[in-house]
């Protein structure tokens, strides 16, 4: 019985080593892929501090994701998120359509920088729309599907090029998107899936910026009216 016990312990030890190696490998591949493909998609530097994805459950998280601005903008980044929780259908990674069950973006910070040539957000969307993976590779024909995407407790930093990178912060409404990549169509390309995810976020950013702009105009109008009343008071004396 001793030999059986030793054999079982050896097998379990080898299995643990294999799982650990797989765990480290899949996380390294994911991190490298994000930082390599991200800039090609957005036109700005993309960094992620760590990726932790279980090769057993498919659940994991990204920490410290940062999407830089395309050239010509002065703010330090377009998007930041401390934590993004994900759940991947691991069996789909063996097929041509990768399925992500759930993505939860927690407390992201989106910086909207406007200029005479447009905004950083619109420029990123243009870059994503123009993205085309290198032909002939398996990744070029791969499709993607995100079943649920949640964006919670987001904030929008508003800036303008003339402000030299300074910004004010306003809240952004929560989002819940379903079937990004069109489930009936069997998934979509990387750029199409990214656009379907980014456009509602861009609309939420624009709405938050517009509301802040209206508030600013109202405050300016209120101050102007107070100034006019004060002048009228001076001239009536």
Number of helices: 4
Query: Roughly what fraction of the amino acids lie in strands?
Result: 25-35%
Secondary-structure-derived class: alpha+beta
- The shape is globular
Give the helix proportion (percent range).
Answer: 40-55%
- Rg over C-alpha atoms, rounded to the nearest angstrom: 24 Å
The parts where pLDDT drops under 50 for at least 5 residues are 3-24, 216-237
Mean pLDDT: 77
SSE topology string: HEEEEEEHHEEEEH
Question: What profile does the largest beta sheet have?
Answer: 10 strands, mixed
Number of domains: 1
> Termini distance?
109 Å
Number of strands: 10
Describe this structure in words.
Strands 1, 2, 3, 4, 5, 6, 7, 8, 9 and 10 form a ten-stranded mixed beta sheet that branches. Strand 8 (155-160) and strand 9 form a beta hairpin. It is built from four helices and ten strands. The protein is of the alpha+beta class. It has helices spanning 2-42, 120-130, 138-141, 190-236, and strands spanning 46-53, 59-67, 79-88, 97-106, 109-115, 118-119, 143-152, 155-160, 167-171, 175-180.
Structure at a glance:
This protein is an alpha+beta fold. The chain has one domain (2-231). It has 4 helices and 10 strands.
Write the layout of secondary structure elements.
Layout: H1 2-42, E1 46-53, E2 59-67, E3 79-88, E4 97-106, E5 109-115, E6 118-119, H2 120-130, H3 138-141, E7 143-152, E8 155-160, E9 167-171, E10 175-180, H4 190-236
Features:
disordered C terminus, 237 residues, 31% strand, alpha+beta, ten-stranded mixed beta sheet, 4 helices, disordered N terminus, 43% helix
């Amino acid at each position: 019985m001793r030999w059986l016990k030793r054999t079982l312990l050896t097998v379990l030890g080898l299995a643990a080593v294999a799982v650990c190696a797989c765990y480290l490998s899949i996380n390294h591949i994911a991190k490298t892929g994000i930082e390599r493909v991200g800039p090609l998609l957005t036109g700005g530097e993309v960094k992620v501090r760590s990726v932790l994805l279980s090769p057993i459950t498919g659940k994991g998280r990204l920490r410290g994701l940062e999407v830089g601005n395309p050239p010509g903008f002065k703010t330090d980044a377009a998007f930041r998120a401390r934590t993004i929780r994900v759940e991947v259908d691991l069996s789909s990674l063996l097929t041509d359509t990768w399925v992500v069950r759930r993505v939860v973006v927690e407390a992201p910070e989106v910086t909207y920088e406007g200029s005479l040539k447009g905004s950083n957000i619109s420029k990123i969307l243009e870059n994503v729309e123009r993205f085309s993976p290198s032909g002939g590779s398996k990744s070029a024909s791969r499709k993607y599907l995100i079943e649920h995407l949640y964006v919670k407790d987001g904030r929008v930093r508003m800036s303008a090029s003339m402000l030299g990178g300074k910004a004010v912060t306003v809240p952004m409404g929560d989002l819940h998107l379903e079937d990004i990549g069109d489930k009936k169509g069997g998934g979509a390309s990387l750029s199409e899936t990214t656009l379907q995810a980014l456009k509602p976020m861009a609309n939420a950013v624009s709405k938050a910026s517009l509301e802040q702009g209206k508030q600013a105009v109202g405050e300016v109008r209120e101050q102007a009216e107070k100034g006019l009343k004060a002048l009228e008071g001076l001239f009536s004396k």
